[in-house]
């Protein structure tokens, strides 16, 4: 009597899952290559990539991504560090706050931003610079669950107290401790949190759409409304970006699996 | 035919052999230990009796019923795991009664039996608790009760004490023996702890690298180890390379000093080694015994005994003496005489 | 050697400032300031405004919008889509996770599924909608294949009975939405439930088999009760992720499916309700539903996990 080599029940579900993954991907790829009738071509891609609106929105989203991620790291690393070192009791409270963006749907959140800052006394949506401040704040809030978790997990693995005391005993100041000791020890956690947050920003539709800023998400939605083949090419490009972000996370954090969901829907 | 029979059991995982040529007959009510280092195949053998592994060849019978290929849930053998493996979602009573529930017993019958088992393990008031509310020792007692509640033909214990503190371990060890004797259940006990095996078992199977090294009562295993492995694994032993002197007379040489033992044979190229337990060695000279002189190398206090290491012409002998207050301890480096009875040593 | 004792330390009366600094909250000021400005202010403002009339007076009348048939429809469609996709995605994802963790599947398949789940859980929004249009839209890849399966009927005429659009299928409908959401829902389930499945100890299965339980009895009596809190939590996450979803539905159906998120979006864009304050009530309603879900989850969680260490 021998065990069957593979159990069919499991193989069935695994294959079903693989099909579910791949058929839409293949369909998209196939579609994106058929812009020229009767032949395979990269025409859709070259049209997308040479569209100045694509380039400008892509550039805008990348800049916003970099700014948001940087600020996010600067806010959350000291916060989590402080929580571990001085106020462990407050951790549950902060944890609940950081998952609030899961509870408040993005559209509702943007609604709140619009009604609050779009009129007196703030009037922040009245010029592009202050609107961009709102964009950045919104992006940080939306990616907060991922960023906070990544840093929290990273902080848990290093002995914050001992490291701090060691640095203090050598006369380091608080800023020096953060810059020279905490940040370097957290670099993998920061990196994976940053990449997830970055991917969130790049794929985000709602903020840009409703604050009327030229981000990549609204651009894609617009292309989808009036083109046929270009959207497929854009989808493939966007998957590739997500793929690269997650691939980098996996590459840098082999061993600890802290993958999460990224994009807003 | 004996109650539990393992015949020509052979088990390989891929190309690596886990158990080979394993033959054992166990009488009803007997307490047998499988003793050996990790990876020696003792747990694999136990798991084959439980049905979690299937032998590559050979067969297993209980009460003359072949159950080699029977699925584990049809075997009616009880098993206790090292990690307790209590179901965390069930209370103590539900855990103990689970086997009976599966067997389709009615509620009042289960309740009565659970009460009985709780009394047997002295946890009468714990029926409504969940496993996480119990200490490790209590959890393992519940696991024992669970494995016994449905009246299995054989009880299997897989290193049941190794996750527990030293003190609880000794307590529970005696508890296991008491329960086993009360119920008269045939028991197989897997352990790497020689003390457990020696103190609990009717017979011990010493295993190494998938093979049986020796089967015997605790006293046979300790006093007459059949192989070098058994001698080294069970208890402490001095194993000193010696030169042949007069095989017929049973004489060997430790360095330049002659020691008398039993008659031995010289096999080609097989080095001779003299085996003697540290507690058989005594300080001082004694006529009629084997006497050796050397230098004190180190003295180690182990609590009730003191272990003195003596260097006899480059060969280290350990000797254990009781730690009596009046005892005059030698000084490291000083000349030292040891003696041991002729019949307390043998050639391996 | 004589030693002099150090003089006893007399605790000085502390000033308020010293006490405040002892509470150690200073390091959290930037965080809370940020949260206050960007999260608390906008959401509490919505809440507040939902209880105000045009003149800023307190009123409950904005919530009368919940009786508006369009609003009722939008909420019920949203709830339906969320429940269906979280159940479908949850069950599917559970079996896939089972295949990955406990199933005897080839190793490359397991690694692949795990990696891809991490990826697919993050595909969503506009690009996902494009993919489904390219695959199952009227000119999509799969549609084209199904259309092309033709054979002559008894009269000799060619029939192509598998065109999904001839059989009542429409991608730009609820069915299409469920199919598209499932693309990220089931991988999300795989990601969240895998650790719980990995936490099932092999010994529990063995112990139950040893006590005479069949595999089915093991799942009924041991594994599923142990997994219940995790399954519940994961399903809630799936529900939330579908309930708040907007981009996928918007890009796929262009608003032809009346989800509550789409209604809110229209209200932001153009005040379709003709009363901005009713819009705030609508938005608060969504938060309330999420809150109730989480509350219900907590109650259920407590009931299914009495045996868990707290």
What does this protein structure show overall?
The complex is a heterotrimer of chains A (265), B (348) and C (310). Chain A is mainly α. Chain A is built from twelve helices and no strands. Chain A has a single domain, classed as MetI-like (MetI-like fold), CATH 1.10.3720.10. Helices cover 76% and strands 0% of the residues of chain A. The radius of gyration of chain A is 22 Å and the shape is globular. Mean pLDDT of chain A is 86; it is low at 255-265. Helices cover 24% and strands 35% of the residues of chain B. Chain B has helices spanning 42-50, 92-102, 107-120, 136-149, 166-183, 194-200, 218-223, 228-233, and strands spanning 4-13, 16-26, 31-35, 57-62, 65-66, 77-80, 154-158, 186-191, 203-208, 211-216, 238-246, 251-254, 257-260, 272-276, 282-283, 290-301, 305-312, 315-322, 335-340, 345-347. The longest helix of chain B is centred in the middle third of the chain and has 18 residues, at 166-183. The radius of gyration of chain B is 25 Å and the shape is elongated. Chain B starts with a strand and ends with a strand. Helices cover 66% and strands 1% of the residues of chain C. Chain C has a two-stranded antiparallel sheet with strand order 1-2. In chain C, strand 1 (151-152) and strand 2 form a beta hairpin. In chain C, helix 3 crosses helix 11, helix 5 (125-136) runs parallel beside helix 10 (247-253) and helix 7 packs across helix 9 (215-243). The longest helix of chain C is centred in the N-terminal third of the chain and has 33 residues, at 69-101. Chain C starts with 15 loop residues before the first helix and ends in a 6-residue tail after the last helix. Chains A and C meet through helix 1, helix 3, helix 4, helix 5 and helix 6 of A and helix 2, helix 3, helix 4, helix 5 and helix 7 of C.
């Amino acid at each position: 009597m021998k065990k069957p080599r593979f159990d069919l029940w499991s193989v069935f579900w695994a294959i079903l899952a693989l099909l579910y993954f791949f058929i839409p991907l293949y369909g998209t790829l196939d579609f994106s290559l058929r812009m020229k009738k009767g032949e395979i071509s990269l025409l859709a891609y070259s049209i997308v990539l040479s569209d100045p609106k694509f380039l400008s929105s892509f550039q805008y989203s990348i800049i916003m991504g970099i700014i948001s991620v940087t600020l996010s790291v600067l806010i959350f690393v000291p916060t989590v560090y402080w929580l571990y070192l001085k106020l462990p009791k407050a951790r549950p409270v902060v944890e609940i706050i950081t998952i609030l963006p899961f509870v408040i749907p993005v559209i509702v959140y943007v609604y709140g931003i619009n009604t609050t800052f779009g009129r007196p006394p703030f009037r922040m949506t009245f010029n592009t610079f202050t609107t961009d401040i709102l964009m950045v704040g919104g992006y940080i809030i939306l990616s907060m669950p991922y960023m906070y978790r990544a840093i929290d997990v990273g902080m848990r693995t290093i002995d914050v107290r001992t490291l701090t005391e060691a640095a203090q005993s050598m006369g380091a100041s608080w800023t020096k401790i953060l810059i020279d000791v905490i940040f370097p020890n957290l670099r993998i956690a920061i990196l994976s949190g940053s990449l997830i947050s970055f991917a969130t920003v790049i794929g985000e539709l709602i903020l840009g759409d409703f604050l009327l800023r030229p981000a990549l998400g609204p651009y894609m939605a617009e292309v989808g409304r009036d083109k046929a083949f270009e959207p497929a090419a854009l989808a493939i490009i966007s998957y590739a970006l997500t793929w690269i972000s997650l691939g980098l996370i996996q590459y840098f954090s082999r061993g600890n699996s802290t993958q999460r969901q990224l994009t807003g829907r | 035919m004996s109650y539990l029979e393992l015949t020509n059991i052979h088990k390989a995982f891929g190309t690596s052999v886990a158990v080979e040529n394993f033959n054992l007959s166990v009488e009803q009510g007997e307490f047998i230990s499988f003793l050996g280092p990790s990876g020696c195949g003792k747990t694999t053998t136990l798991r084959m009796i439980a049905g979690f592994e299937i032998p590559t060849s050979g067969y297993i019978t209980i009460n003359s019923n072949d159950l080699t290929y029977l699925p584990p849930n049809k075997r009616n053998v009880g098993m206790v795991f090292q990690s307790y493996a209590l179901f965390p979602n069930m209370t103590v009573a539900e855990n103990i009664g689970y086997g009976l529930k599966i067997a389709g017993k009615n509620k009042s019958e289960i309740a009565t039996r659970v009460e009985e088992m709780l009394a047997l393990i002295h946890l009468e008031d714990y029926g409504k608790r969940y496993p996480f509310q119990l200490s490790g020792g209590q959890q393992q007692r519940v696991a024992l009760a669970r494995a016994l509640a449905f009246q299995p033909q054989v009880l299997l214990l897989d290193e049941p004490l190794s996750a527990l503190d030293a003190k609880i371990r000794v307590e529970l060890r005696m508890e296991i023996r008491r329960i086993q004797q009360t119920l008269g259940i045939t028991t197989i006990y897997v352990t790497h702890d020689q003390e457990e095996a020696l103190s609990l078992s009717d017979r011990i199977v010493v295993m190494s690298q998938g093979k049986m090294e020796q089967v015997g009562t605790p006293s046979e295993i300790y006093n007459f180890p059949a192989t070098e492995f058994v001698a080294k694994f069970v208890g402490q032993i001095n194993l000193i390379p010696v030169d042949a002197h007069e095989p017929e007379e049973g004489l060997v040489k430790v360095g330049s000093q002659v020691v008398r033992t039993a008659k031995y044979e010289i096999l080609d190229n097989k080095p001779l080694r003299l085996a003697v337990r540290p507690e058989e060695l005594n300080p001082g000279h004694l006529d009629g015994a084997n006497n050796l002189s050397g230098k004190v190398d180190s003295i180690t206090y182990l609590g009730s005994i003191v272990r003195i290491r003596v260097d006899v012409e480059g060969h280290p002998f350990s000797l254990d003496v009781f730690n009596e207050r009046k005892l005059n301890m030698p000084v490291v480096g000083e000349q030292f005489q040891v003696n041991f009875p002729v019949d307390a040593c043998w050639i391996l | 050697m004589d030693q002099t004792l150090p003089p006893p330390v007399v605790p000085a009366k502390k000033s308020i400032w010293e006490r405040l600094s002892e509470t150690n909250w200073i390091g959290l000021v930037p965080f809370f300031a940020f949260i206050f400005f960007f999260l608390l202010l906008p959401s509490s403002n919505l809440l507040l405004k939902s209880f105000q009339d045009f003149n800023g007076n307190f009123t409950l009348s904005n919530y009368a919008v919940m009786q508006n048939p369009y609003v009722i429809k939008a909420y019920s469609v949203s709830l339906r889509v969320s429940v269906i996709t979280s159940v479908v995605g949850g069950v599917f994802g559970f079996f896939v996770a089972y295949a990955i963790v406990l199933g005897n599947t080839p190793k490359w398949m397991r690694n692949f599924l795990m990696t891809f789940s991490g990826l697919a859980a993050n595909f969503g929004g506009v690009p996902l909608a494009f993919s489904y249009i390219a695959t199952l839209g009227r000119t999509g890849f799969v549609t084209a294949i199904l259309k092309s399966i033709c054979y002559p009927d008894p009269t000799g005429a060619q029939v192509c009975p598998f065109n999904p659009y001839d059989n009542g299928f429409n991608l730009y409908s609820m069915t299409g939405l469920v199919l598209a959401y499932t693309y990220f829902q089931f991988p999300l389930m795989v990601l969240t439930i895998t650790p719980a499945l990995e936490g099932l100890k092999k010994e529990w299965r063995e112990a139950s088999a040893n006590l005479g339980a069949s595999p089915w009895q093991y799942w009924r009596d041991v594994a599923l009760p142990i997994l219940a809190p995790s399954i519940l939590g994961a399903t809630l996450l799936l529900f939330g992720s579908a309930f708040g979803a907007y981009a996928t539905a918007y890009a796929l159906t262009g608003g032809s499916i009346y989800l509550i998120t789409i209604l809110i979006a229209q209200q932001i864009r153009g005040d379709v309700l003709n009363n901005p304050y009713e819009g705030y009530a609508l938005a608060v309603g969504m938060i309330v539903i999420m809150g109730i879900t989480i509350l219900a989850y907590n109650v259920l969680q407590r009931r299914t996990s009495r045996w868990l260490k707290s």
